[in-house]
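Example 3.2
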Amino acid sequence: MSEKQENRDYDHKSSVRGFTPDLNSFPDENPKPSSGQEPFPFWLMIVCVILMIIGGSYVGANSGGFNFSNNHKPGYQASVPEGLTGKPPELSDFEKYVNGGEAVYKAVCNGCHQGAGQGNGQIPPLVNSEWVNKGTERFSQIVLNGLSGPITVNGAAYGAAAMPAQKGAINDKQIAQVMTYVRFKFGNITDSVVTKEMVEVARQKFGDKANQYSASELSGEDVMLEGDQPDWMSPESGDAESDDAESVESGEGSASLVLESNEQNS
């Protein structure tokens, strides 16, 4: 063997002997999972599948095929809880009358006197006004023919703004209702109303006046419009109606009611 061959063999053996593998340079065959990368539990997946099957079966059995005609029953009405009628409470005749006046007020008076009746600048307020809460005759004079000139309301002086006449803008019933509403809303007067018949009389007496009233020309604070209160304003009428209803339910008084009905028909 030549010297060169021996040297090559020696160099190869030395290189092999000097090679030491770095075990840390190779990754682990089964590394531990890091946080947030754990595998999804197989048992939990099975539970989810079972729940989906059960839920789908229930919906399919009770959905009626998602067809409206299968779910809607003709004539069905929702039940009403005990003590409730399912309808808004019936308004009294007084409330209906006042509501009619409120509609007129919003359409005609609200712009000047404001919704709360506090007035606006030189336009006097209606809240607790002595010209509203006291004599209804002078109140009707103001509404029918208007008002101009100085006037004192609740101790404050007004008069720069004139109130126009309303006798040609709204009819007698509307005037009666709005007067009732103003007295109720801003004066808390509930024991009386102004009727259409009262305003008709007032129009006959004061409606021909060519110009607006001044405060000194108005009737006294104690003068009320002529006319009777409607029957539904009398507490006795309500008691009588309830007594009649009770007697009919108990069978008493049925003969008298039939007799009255026959007399009316004849």
